[in-house]
Amino acid sequence: MGMPPVVLLHAFPLDSRMWDGVRAELDVITPDLRGSGREPDLDVLARDVVELIEPLGRVILGGCSMGGYVAMAVLRLAPERVAGLVLADTRAGADTDTARATRLAVARRVEAEGLEWLPDAVVPGLLGPEPSADVVAGVRGFVLDQDPVEVAWAQRAMAARRDSAEVLRGADVPALVLVGEHDGLAPPAVGRELAGSLPRSTYVELPGAGHLTPVEAPQAFAAAIRTWWDA
């Protein structure tokens, strides 16, 4: 069985360039998720993705972190378009009150001060314990390249997101859950729980990586997708 088109959705606060290493190994479609000017709701991004994939038929839909949240929203809106699901370093649950308050505070600070402070605040928590200097510099650059309006919008949209556990329990498609060994934001225990909620799941833990597995271990990430689909 040939592999359907693979559509991968990026993490926050990055863009589609985070998939460049995976793109070198696997033919993938990687849109930039942009929502500003519209209601801060991840369904806005999900509808954009549905519009993108409609001409493609059924796709393997994947996402890392925020991209995973959007993939779950797509699954809720248009399950008939999803032939397989790849969820990396993400979780099904809605934010806790504390996490929601933190997101809203970040949104307000970004609007007030811009992005210069943000890499120091977020990049160490996104990467594993021994990232290369190139990876660190690349991720910091991605963060600084974003539009502050989009960053604030995405934080508010994620703060408002719904729990997707029920959607995943009803997802009768092959699913791959990928988690970095050192992911401190959506750790392996969360990934295993996520895999357990999916009827047809495979769980893969990538050694040495943190929260941004496609950036830190792109070859292993792409190989995991190929191996999973071939099986």
From TrEMBL:
Molecular function via GO: catalytic activity
Family annotation (InterPro entries): AB_hydrolase_1, AB_hydrolase_fold, AB_hydrolase_sf
AB hydrolase-1 domain segment(s): 6-224
Top-rank taxon, per record: Bacteria
PANTHER family in UniProt: AB HYDROLASE-1 DOMAIN-CONTAINING PROTEIN (PTHR43798:SF29), MONOACYLGLYCEROL LIPASE (PTHR43798)
Protein name according to UniProt: Pimeloyl-ACP methyl ester carboxylesterase
Natural source organism: Saccharothrix violaceirubra
